[in-house]
Design goal:
single chain; mainly alpha; 2 domains; three-stranded antiparallel sheet; two-stranded antiparallel sheet; elongated
Length: about 375
């Protein structure tokens, strides 16, 4: 049975030495986010998927995706010398990036010259495993350390057993490290999260709740004004459920976040849809099949058509919703009447975000079973 090592804070092992990994993330050895992001990508894209090799392009993309939630969505500082947020904005565009993180996968390597000293990966693969070779590089001048670590990672791959060896086009994880990380994934994820939060706290000392800002949180929220808006629309015309196609009765529904609230952490009206209570419970925090997007677009176009006759709390909610459509989807109230235009924007925005959500652990492609529709 694996025991938790009180000295290293990582599960003990008789096959690999977790000590250098703990040392790697000592506060004195961490100057920016890159080592944290690289390690989290290795856990996510190699260990969890059973792959031993990962190319540099995939690593850069993954690092940007991991940095998107704290760095872009929550606007946290990652350090004075940290360039990853700047690089994302160059590759994707500052206006598009907060709304459509899926653009990272399409443009993350656009400005990345892996042979350049300005590359995000120029130093970090060597720096993450340097602790395994401290004795060998201790007396070397700085400019010789990284090349030596790369060479030693290959020459001593089977003896020293660093977490990976550095190849010309990517990284190759040691098989015993893959076994160790896989067997202790829950504990190591908790440890990695704790190290990541500690780093962010050092850069954002006045920000509370940082543990909730490194990944999506879960919870239910009341949407009184939004319910009033949907109820008033239902008074004037029929509204059908996006997921079942059945007419929804006034007051007899739950408001669902099409993309889970646990992922988006906000209550933008364009992502909210009234559904049957039992379907809301069944869907929970799953991502629905994107084939439902045309139904969502039709539903919201109906609201736009009826909105001119709204009053009271419903009108307040609609005015606020219009601001959100304009700011996030770049659509005016008149353009919302064009169902196909709204559908096109939904397809672009949701397809981009679904990739991020999936890699964060959200299940995708949900749709109700036939028996759930009876």
């Amino acid at each position: 049975m694996t025991l938790l090592s009180s000295h290293f804070g990582l599960p003990a092992s008789n096959r690999v030495d977790p000590g250098p990994l703990e040392t790697t993330f000592d506060d004195k050895r961490v100057t920016n986010s890159y080592k944290h992001l690289l390690f989290r990508v290795l856990l996510r894209d190699c260990v969890e998927s059973g792959r031993s090799r990962i190319d540099f392009e995939t690593i850069v993309t993954g690092m940007m995706e991991e940095a998107w939630w704290p760095g872009i969505h929550h606007g946290l500082k990652l350090g004075h010398s940290d360039k990853i947020v700047e690089r994302m904005r160059q590759a994707v565009g500052a206006d598009v990036l907060p709304l459509d993180p899926g653009e990272i996968r399409r443009g993350s390597t656009k400005f990345e010259d892996f042979g350049s000293k300005d590359s995000l990966l120029h130093f970090v693969p060597q720096r993450l495993i340097r602790s395994w070779f401290d004795d060998e590089v201790r007396d070397l001048p700085d400019h010789q350390i990284d090349p030596m670590v790369k060479r030693l990672s290959c020459d001593q791959f089977r003896t020293t057993r660093p977490i990976y060896r550095i190849l010309d086009d990517g990284l190759d994880l040691h098989p015993e490290w893959i076994e160790y990380l896989s067997a202790n994934m829950d504990s190591i994820k908790i440890w990695s999260d704790a190290m990541w939060v500690r780093f962010l706290e050092s850069r954002n000392p006045d920000v509370e709740g940082l543990a909730e800002k490194i990944m999506p949180g879960f919870g239910r929220f009341h949407l009184g004004a939004e319910r009033a808006l949907w109820n008033m629309v239902m008074d004037r015309c029929g509204v059908t459920s996006v997921y079942s196609g059945k007419l929804i009765g006034k007051g007899d529904f739950e408001l669902d976040h099409f993309l889970p609230r646990a992922f988006v952490t906000q209550d933008k009206f364009w992502n909210i849809t009234p559904v049957e209570r039992h379907l809301r419970a069944l869907k929970d925090n799953s991502i629905p099949d994107l084939a439902f997007i045309p139904h969502l677009a039709r539903q919201h176009s109906i609201v736009a058509r009826e909105a001119t006759r709204l009053s009271g709390g419903a009108k307040f909610a609609w005015d606020r919703a219009l601001d959100q459509y304009a700011a996030d989807l770049r659509l005016s109230g008149a353009e919302l009447l064009d169902e196909k235009a709204l559908e096109s924007v939904y397809n672009r925005i949701f397809s981009g975000r679904v990739g991020i959500a999936k890699r964060m652990g959200f299940s995708e492609g949900w749709r109700p079973n036939v028996r759930d529709l009876v």
